[in-house]
Amino acid sequence: MSRTAVAHTAAARLSLVVLIGGWTANQIATTASYRTGQAILLTTLTAFFLLLMLRLALAAALYRGRRLPLLVLLITVATWSLGSMTVNAASLEEQTHFPAPGEWLFLVSYLGLAGYLMIDVERRQGSQARGWLDVAVICGVSSCLASLLLVTPIRLASGAEGLALLLALMYPLADLALALVVLGQHLLQARTDSRRTLMMGAAFVLLAGGDSGFALQVSAPTYDFGNTSNALWGAGWALLVAAACRPEQRVMRAIPKAAGTRLLVPAGALALAVLTIRPDDALAFYTVPPAVLTLAAVGARMVLALRDANRAAEAFALSQTDDLTNLPNRRAVRARLMESLSDRRPLALMLLDLDGFKEINDTLGHHAGDSVLKFVGFRMQQALGSEAMVARLGGDEFAILLETVDQIELVETAHRVLHALAEPLVVDGIEIGPGGSIGITVVEDADTDSGEVLRRADVAMYQAKSSRSGAAVYDAHLDEFSRSRLELAEELRKGIAEGQIEVWYQPQLDARTMRVSALEALVRWRHPLQGVLSPVAFLPAARRAGLMGLLSDDIAWHAVRDLQRLLAAGLDLRVAINCAPPELLSQSFLPRLYAALQEWDVPPDRLVLEVTEDSFLADPERARDVLLELRDRGIQVSIDDYGTGFSSLAYLRNLPVQELKIDRSLVRDVPTDDRSRLIVSSTIQLAHALDMRTVAEGVEDATNLAQLAAMGVDIIQGYQVARPMPAAAVERWMQEWTDTETAAEDAAENRRSG
């Protein structure tokens, strides 16, 4: 803790000691001698207020962001204490008559308190003029109420009038008005520190309690109000300074609200009532000034409120209009969609995206691009007339809203718009024929949000772009980002965490011996509702949701664990794991794979990583380093789907690859297509020349198997051998396959010997 903070804490504690000790001493001394009591009171006030001012000065040094309001409060405390000491010093000689000459210092201090409240708010909003006018309205209406409800009874009961009566009532009412200001600021979230707000409100209530002595004893000509009022004043100021010196609140808990005008009408009505009723002309001195002040403040505040309303209306209109084309903008489109959703009226939305607009901007500049956008907006309005709402959403994207759900009519309208846009226009001396793609969707009964309608139209627009059809109606089957797919991704995330992912295996046979030499690990998802799902059903969702890393880690761990169990059972085989390029080149997958091999004590050479050819395209150097690392660790690498991608002989020569897996599209056509047969045969010869194994995947029948074996392929995989199976079924299937092959070999041997 800094020295300033220590001094601040000491000043706070000492001020309380001085207040309590001085009040106690004054209470005892006053019973013996009035002059002694006044001397003790004056000494106590001097020390107490000096400590309060010291505390505020130290707080200003600690909290530099609040230095101005703390200094304003310091000056206010000094002014009030100077007035108090002036009055009490005069009372040492004789009891001072109310109001004393030092009374103006108290009045100035209340202006300081009002200023402090206005600049000490944590979240300012709006102009300071509004805040001051709100304070004036609150104070004025409080004075009006007092003039109606309090002035007459107190004047009649006390016989007092003039300035003395006005001051006697003004002080407690001003305290309560300031308490109301604090409460209002808290309700508007301009003050978010609830404890500070409570302390400040309580402080003003205590001050009001002390000041009420003026109203209760207004008939007395002196300042002899007793120690109770002194204690309330001291406690009020101590609490107010303590609230001001609380640490700053740096966490924003709420957005400030705009000050409302609901108080203005009743305040103005009350002021008019005071001016109209006036029960006694002799009371005009007390009732007319606050009523006039209130009406003036209400009038000025209403002028500001009307100006704000006009600006808000203009801002709302501008907020729904595109600056460049003067067409409705995205906000207006959303509002129209929400109106249709609430009224359940038929409505269709089209989104148009210009083709080649970026090239226009890059070549001719943004000025030319802006001209094209203006032309496009104008032509769309001409083509559609008043039957549709044309809007610009931003960039080169436009929207059309039509009150129809007839898809044939919508497609015809879309092509009419595209035809109108295709007419040449001249920009900067260059003739341009804008083209575009339009996506179409209709508002459905199940829709509850305009964002979903916009999303569907956007998807349809990209479908139109990809198909180059010009216009396309939304097709849920082509929507990769539909709600159901998003839900599937979240279910998959949960499924990975809860162990719903399973690894199944498809056997690979040695083509020469027809013995099982390896297994390929294939992922399955045992969905709690949909049953076992194949990778086609959920891998696209996993890629979009960024779950491939988690999924790959889970598959690798299960595959290594199952491999350890099979090796322990005496089976001599390898396990192949598919590895996508992002996982292969990432910094996380391989370390976890190495950790799994170590955890289950599996020899690395029993593991094969199947990678696709595009793994080497994005970052060839990184891919080479990874493959060299795998070779050094003893893990084998197989190029999956060979023959379908960028099949370069260079990486076969330079990269440490042990296996080529010929794609099923080539393997399937070997019996019927000479070109496929030549490609497969040459691939087998090339692989053998480079000392690599070859795997033929997708072998579906015995004829295909026999031809591939005759061509010299090393490994056979496909439904002709076996379908993928759960890990628990592998050992039993292998035993059955071995028994069948052994029986077939024995039968063949018997036929040869017989």
UniProtKB/TrEMBL annotation:
InterPro entries: Cyclic-di-GMP_PDE-like, EAL_dom, EAL_sf, GGDEF_dom, Nucleotide_cyclase, Rev_trsase/Diguanyl_cyclase. Residues 485-738 form the EAL domain. CDD domains: EAL (cd01948), GGDEF (cd01949). GO terms for molecular function: cyclic-guanylate-specific phosphodiesterase activity. The chain crosses the membrane at residues 40-63, 70-90, 102-119, 131-151, 163-185, 197-218, 259-277, 283-304. Keywords: Membrane, Transmembrane, Transmembrane helix. Residues 345-476 form the GGDEF domain. SMART domains: EAL, GGDEF. This is Diguanylate cyclase (GGDEF) domain-containing protein. It comes from Nocardioides terrae.
